[in-house]
Each structure stands twice: as structure tokens, then as C-alpha cells.
């Protein structure tokens, strides 16, 4: 980026898959966007060029509060130096978080040290992913297009292995993480703009830590985007939420004729030019169905316990087996489905880290140029293990699932095409679409 250039939005994604969804959202809306995998240096910023939307992907969702503070402080300092009008703390659309892991209140406390604006909008819901927030209660569909459940009755989220959701009212959920949250509910958007402005001001003047905005329909995005942008004009602010934060801003900018560029057509993705490797470290039922439905791959089961225990002989044998098949031009889907039955301290995090190390060791053994990683935490740690500094968006494989181009200094990683998929995301044919194109 050129000296003194100021992005409209900077965002930190608390897991890598969610960060790529925000990257996709911004790019499709015409914003010049790039996602960095860590705080960039001056050379990387120059290589990126002038950006409207600059993201940093992280793994705070899987961290304890002390780890989160260590992770987020340098990012907050870096963003503060860029002075974007809006800093977006990007969380999962299902608000995956708890007092002991991924604590959103901890993130707010870090950014409070760098952003003086007391107005902190929290955007609930993301309709294009069938996530809805109405009267502060969060709802989500099962299996993309399936029945919608309140989040504490959602069969996957109420049984999440790390952050099970036992509360649907996001004010209460966030209060458990140290945040006092007021709310603007969907009927308020029927008012004219000045009346809504006045209502928001009354609530903000009462001094809550944040104001939660319902999003139950795509039509709710623009009025919420107006509130975010209006409050960011005086002093830069922090906004919290899923990719719907950027969706709301872009919806408002389009209405005002302030779009940065024509929207991108993200509907066409070419078939893979060679062998495709997928590493499925997600323990979600959605991913399990996608694995079962995949027709294009040879499936190889990885023993999760032996990965976690760093059984070198076993890992070397599996690396050799997979590399041999990939180098013969065969698509391979490696999965750690037995990880759901493991017990032990922070087993999900340890499995994600082990999966990332496995991928790092596999790449030098192959010429594979298109890779899929399933699982939010697995994706985060897989990319942390690789020598990649940035991602740009190529296209959409499914709602909430992006295909990205890797930016790296080394020829092996530079230009690799990556699909990073959260556990709940994508249709059953997703892995075949990665091979055959969309």
C-alpha cells in the first residue's frame, strides 16, 4: 500500500475460514481486498497495493483469554496505525465463544486500548448463510437449506465440542463474557432514518459496552450499515460480528452510490488442473456428510490420536502413501473422523495443530496446487504451519466457502489454490466441486 493510504475497513478474523468469507464478501462487492495471515511487513504491504479492505486471519476463537490478548494486541496496534474508519472484529455467524475460549469481551477490551469511540455495534445474523438474529435471539438453519432452529436448540451448535451454545439471547451470551449489551430490534428499521438515528443515540448515551443490531433479512443490512458508517465518520470505531458487518456497510454504500468498483462475478471456478488434496479435520456432522458424498477421491483415514501423539513412524508412512497417490494424479481426501471420540486436555486444538503440521510436511513431497481444508480450527492451524503471507479471493464454491489464491515468497506455496471450510459450511457436493469446478 502507498504511504498514507487509508483502507475503509480493516478486519481480524477469529478463525481462518470465517476470515476468508469476509474476504469474499468484500471482494465480490468491488472492494480491493487482501487477507494477510499475520501482521504484514512493509514489503508485503507494498506488494498488496492500495486496498479498500485489509484483513488479518487469526485463531483467537480457539484461544483462552490470556492467549487472545497476546494474539490481538499487535493486530490492534497495526490497525491503529492505519486508522481505518471501521475496524471489524470478525466472529463466527453462530457467535461461537465462551468465557474460557474465544471470549468476545476479551477482544473488546484489547481494542478499547486503541479505539476511543465508545459506540461498538454488534451485528447479529447473516441471512445468506441462514443465520438470523431477531429480538436479540440467534437462529441458524441445519445443513444449508434445512430447518431453522434457535441456536440453543440447534442439533450441532448445542453439542459443539468446544463452545456448546446453551443461550440464544446474544445479550445474555455476551454478558457471560463480560459485556453489557443493549439492542436495536428489527421493527425499528421500519422507521425513517432520522427516527432510527435518534433511537440509536438514546441507547448509546446510556453507555453500554456494545449495541446489538438484529439482522433477520437482507433488507436489514443497509440501515445497520448506515449506523456503522455514520458513527465512524467522527472517530474510527470497532464493529463486532460475522461477515454481515461488511455486508451491511457495502449495502449502505451501494444505496448511496459510494461503491468502490463494480461487483465481482464469483460464480465461475475452473476445474482443477491436477490432483486435489483435502484434509478434513472438522468433527462436524456437516463435514461428515460431505466426506461420505465425495465421489472424486480416494479416502484415507488418519488416526487422530497418533497424529496428536506425533507418532513419527505412522505419520511418515501416511505422508508417503498420500504423496504417492497425489503424484500419480489421484485426488485424495484424508480425514480424522475418529477425533470426535478422543478425550484429553484441549484435544480439538491439539488435533488442529497436528493436522496443520501434517499438511506442512506433505506439501514438499507433492506438486499439488489445489488444496481443501475442512474445519475452522484445522484451517487456522494448517495455514499457520505454511509459509504463506496472504490470500486473495478467486471465487465461491458454496455459501460461506471461498476458493483463494495463496501469496508467498516461495515458489512452492505461491499461487496454490486453497479452500478453507468451517464445519457447518457448504453443500454435500462441496468436495467434488473443488475438483470439478463450479
Structural write-up:
The radius of gyration is 21 Å and the shape is globular. The longest helix has 18 residues, at 65-82. The protein folds into two domains: 9-255, Rossmann fold, CATH 3.40.50; 276-436, Four-carbon acid sugar kinase, nucleotide binding domain (Molybdenum Cofactor Biosythetic Enzyme, Chain A, 3-Layer(aba) Sandwich). Helices cover 35% and strands 20% of the residues. The model has no long low-confidence stretch (mean pLDDT 90). It has helices at residues 16-28, 42-48, 65-82, 104-112, 170-175, 193-205, 221-232, 244-255, 285-293, 304-308, 312-327, 347-362, 376-384, 430-436; strands spanning 9-13, 33-36, 53-57, 86-90, 121-123, 131-134, 137-141, 148-150, 181-184, 210-213, 237-241, 276-280, 298-301, 332-335, 370-374, 390-398, 401-407, 417-421. It has a 15-stranded mixed beta sheet, with helices on both faces. The protein has a three-stranded antiparallel beta sheet with strand order 6-7-8, with no helix packed on it. With 438 residues, it is of the alpha/beta class. Helix 7 packs across helix 8.
Amino acid at each position: 500500500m502507498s504511504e498514507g493510504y487509508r483502507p475503509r475497513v480493516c478486519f481480524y478474523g477469529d478463525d481462518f475460514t470465517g476470515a476468508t468469507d469476509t474476504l469474499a464478501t468484500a471482494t465480490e462487492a468491488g472492494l480491493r481486498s487482501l487477507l494477510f495471515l499475520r501482521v504484514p511487513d512493509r514489503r508485503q504491504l507494498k506488494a498488496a497495493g492500495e486496498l479498500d479492505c485489509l484483513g488479518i486471519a487469526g485463531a483467537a476463537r480457539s484461544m483462552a483469554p490470556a492467549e487472545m490478548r497476546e494474539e490481538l494486541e499487535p493486530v490492534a496496534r497495526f490497525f491503529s496505525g492505519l486508522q481505518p474508519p471501521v475496524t471489524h472484529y470478525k466472529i463466527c455467524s453462530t457467535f461461537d465463544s465462551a468465557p474460557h475460549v474465544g471470549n468476545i469481551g476479551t477482544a473488546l477490551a484489547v481494542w478499547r486500548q486503541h479505539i476511543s469511540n465508545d459506540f461498538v455495534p454488534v451485528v447479529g445474523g447473516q441471512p445468506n448463510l441462514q443465520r438470523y438474529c431477531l429480538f436479540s435471539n440467534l437462529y441458524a438453519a441445519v445443513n444449508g437449506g434445512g430447518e431453522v432452529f434457535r441456536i440453543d436448540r440447534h442439533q450441532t451448535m448445542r453439542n459443539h465440542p468446544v463452545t456448546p451454545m446453551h443461550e440464544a439471547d446474544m445479550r445474555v451470551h455476551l454478558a457471560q463474557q463480560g459485556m453489557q449489551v443493549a439492542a436495536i430490534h428489527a421493527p425499528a428499521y421500519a422507521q425513517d432514518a432520522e427516527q432510527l438515528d435518534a433511537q440509536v443515540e438514546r441507547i448509546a448515551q446510556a453507555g453500554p459496552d456494545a449495541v446489538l443490531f438484529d439482522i433477520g433479512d437482507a433488507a436489514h443490512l443497509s440501515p445497520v450499515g448506515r449506523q456503522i458508517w455514520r458513527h465512524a465518520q467522527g472517530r474510527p470505531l470497532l464493529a463486532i460480528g460475522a461477515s454481515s458487518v461488511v455486508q451491511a456497510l457495502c449495502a449502505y454504500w451501494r444505496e448511496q452510490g459510494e461503491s468502490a468498483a463494480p461487483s465481482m462475478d464469483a460464480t465461475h471456478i475452473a476445474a482443477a488442473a491436477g490432483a486435489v488434496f483435502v484434509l478434513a479435520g472438522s468433527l462436524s456432522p456437516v463435514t461428515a456428510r460431505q466426506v461420505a458424498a465425495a465421489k472424486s477421491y480416494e479416502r484415507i483415514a488418519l488416526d487422530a490420536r497418533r497424529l496428536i501423539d506425533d507418532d513419527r513412524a505412522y505419520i511418515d508412512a501416511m505422508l508417503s502413501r498420500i504423496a504417492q497417490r497425489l503424484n500419480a494424479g489421484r485426488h485424495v481426501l484424508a480425514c480424522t473422523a475418529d477425533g470426535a471420540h478422543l478425550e484429553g486436555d484441549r484435544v480439538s486444538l491439539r488435533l488442529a495443530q497436528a493436522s496443520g503440521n501434517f499438511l506442512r510436511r506433505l506439501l514438499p513431497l507433492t506438486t499439488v496446487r489445489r488444496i481443501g481444508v475442512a474445519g475452522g480450527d484445522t484451517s487456522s492451524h494448517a495455514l499457520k504451519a505454511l509459509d504463506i503471507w496472504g490470500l486473495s479471493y478467486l471465487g465461491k464454491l458454496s455459501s460461506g466457502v471461498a476458493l483463494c489464491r495463496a501469496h508467498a515468497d516461495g515458489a512452492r506455496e505461491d499461487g496454490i489454490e486453497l479452500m478453507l471450510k468451517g464445519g457447518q459450511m457448504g453443500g454435500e457436493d462441496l468436495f467434488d466441486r473443488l475438483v470439478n469446478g463450479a
